[in-house]
Structures are given as structure tokens and as C-alpha cells.
Amino acid sequence: GAVVSQHPSRVICKSGTSVKIECRSLDFQATTMFWYRQFPKQSLMLMATSNEGSKATYEQGVEKDKFLINHASLTLSTLTVTSAHPEDSSFYICSADRTGGNYGYTFGSGTRLTVV
Amino acid sequence: RKEVEQDPGPFNVPEGATVAFNCTYSNSASQSFFWYRQDCRKEPKLLMSVYSSGNEDGRFTAQLNRASQYISLLIRDSKLSDSATYLCVVNWGAQKLVFGQGTRLTINP
Questions:
Q1: Sheet with A4-7, side-by-side order of all strands
Q2: Max Cα separation, chain B?
Q3: Upper half-sphere CA count for residue B91 (Cβ side, 13 Å)
Q4: Tens digit of pLDDT for each residue in A39-65?
Q5: Count of CB pairs separated by less than 8 Å, A with B
Q6: Does A103 sit within 8 Å of B49, measured CB to CB?
Q7: Exposed/middle/buried for B14, CB within 10 Å: 0-12, 13-18, 19+?
Q8: Which residues contact A73 (CB under 8 A, 6 or more apart)?
Q9: Which of A32, A42, A112 sits opposite B95 (nearest CB)?
Q10: DSSP for B51-77, written as a single string
Q11: Residue B65: C-alpha distances to residues B13, B31, B72 (Å)
């Protein structure tokens, strides 16, 4: 089945620094990947859609200059949280699909970001 | 109205019980529907897709009512390992998934 790898699984960083999270599709090519954020006891909220070879599409309220997305190849998308602040502490999860979304999506294992 | 709405629970039921979750969605154009389960501090994992005719996978049965924009999940003979948060997920178009807030289930021995 489809495998999506996400790295790192956990990161602690100082306020003001930037953090890069990688999402890889291991056994398929993903022209589209998705980045979600989940705060404690809340559901997943879509942040942006990452498109291979073009600009990402951001959801309303998500700052594109703060959450930089790069999808330079068919198997890798990266999310960089720039100038992180404690309120950015959250669980970030990527997902990808090779069936156009009709049969569900596979999620990466998530990255727990803590900004101190 | 929320895009995808679920009863957050928590549901606490004894092992062996039958439990049902409900979900409503607001986008009448949605075509794909799913139930995911999420364990604490883990990523969501696909439990099953939901089809108009209803579908069953072992102890799990999913139903879809397009007219009422309503989805359900039934778990029979619940096991301790069924304890998790169950997420109702709707494909909103253009491959965008919208998640309900999740229903937390605890199975008690």
C-alpha cells in the first residue's frame, strides 16, 4: 500500500528559529500533498495543498510567508515554519494519495513541534 | 453550520457492546466519505470508506445517507483495542479532505 514518510517526528526549537519538516511518498509519485495542523483535542485542519512544480495553495487564515512549502519533486514536499513562536506548537501532519482522493489518503506519522 | 460535524463524546462503553457514531456534512456535492481512527498522539489511519449502499468490514459497518447528508459508523462486539478517536472525513472536492472534530471512544474491560 501507499507509504508516506514524515521527518522529524518530534522537534523542539527556540522561539524565532525556523524548522523544516519533510514529507516523502515512498512507493508512489505524488503530484499533490497536503499539510495539516492539529492542536490538542481538536481535529485536523488543512493548512495548504502542495503542488509539485508550482506554488502551494493555502487555506484561508494560513500565512504563506510563515509556512513555506516546497514541492520540488514528485516524492518530496517540505514545510518550513519560519520564525516559530510558541503558538505554532502543534502536531503537523502531511498526507498524499495516488488515487485522486477516492479511496482515502495516507498520512505521514506527524511531527510534534514544540517552540520554547 | 460546521462543514463536518460529529458528537465529540466521549463514549465509554463496556467491552462487547455495540456503539454507533453519527456524522453530518454540509457540502451536498461531496462524493467520497471515510472513517479514520486516530490513536493518541498518532496520525489518522483509514478505517474504511463509506459507500451509498452501506458497507461492512468485520465488526464495522458504515452507512451513508446522501439525502440527509449523514454518515454513520457501527462497531459491534467492541474490543479494548477499539479505544481511539474516530474521525468522520469528507472529500470536499479538488482532493481536499475536511475532518470532523472526532468522537472519542473508550472501551472498558
A1: A4-7, A19-25, A76-81, A67-73
A2: 43
A3: 18
A4: 988 889 999 999 888 899 999 999 999
A5: 52
A6: yes
A7: exposed
A8: A52
A9: A32
A10: -TT-EEETTEEEEEETTTTEEEEEE-S
A11: 26, 12, 9
Q: How many residues in chain A?
A: 116
Q: What percent of chain B has pLDDT over 70?
A: 98
A43/B32 CB distance under 8 A? no
Name every chain A residue with its beta carbon within 8 A of the beta carbon of B102: 43
Strands B103-108 and B11-14: parallel
Q: Which of B50, B97, B103, B104 is the best mutation test for A, with the most CBs of A within 10 A?
A: B97
Whether residue B85 contacts residue B105, with contact meaning beta carbons closer than 8 Å, is answered with yes
| pLDDT the model gives residue B25 | 95
B-chain CB neighbours of A95 within 8 Å are: 97
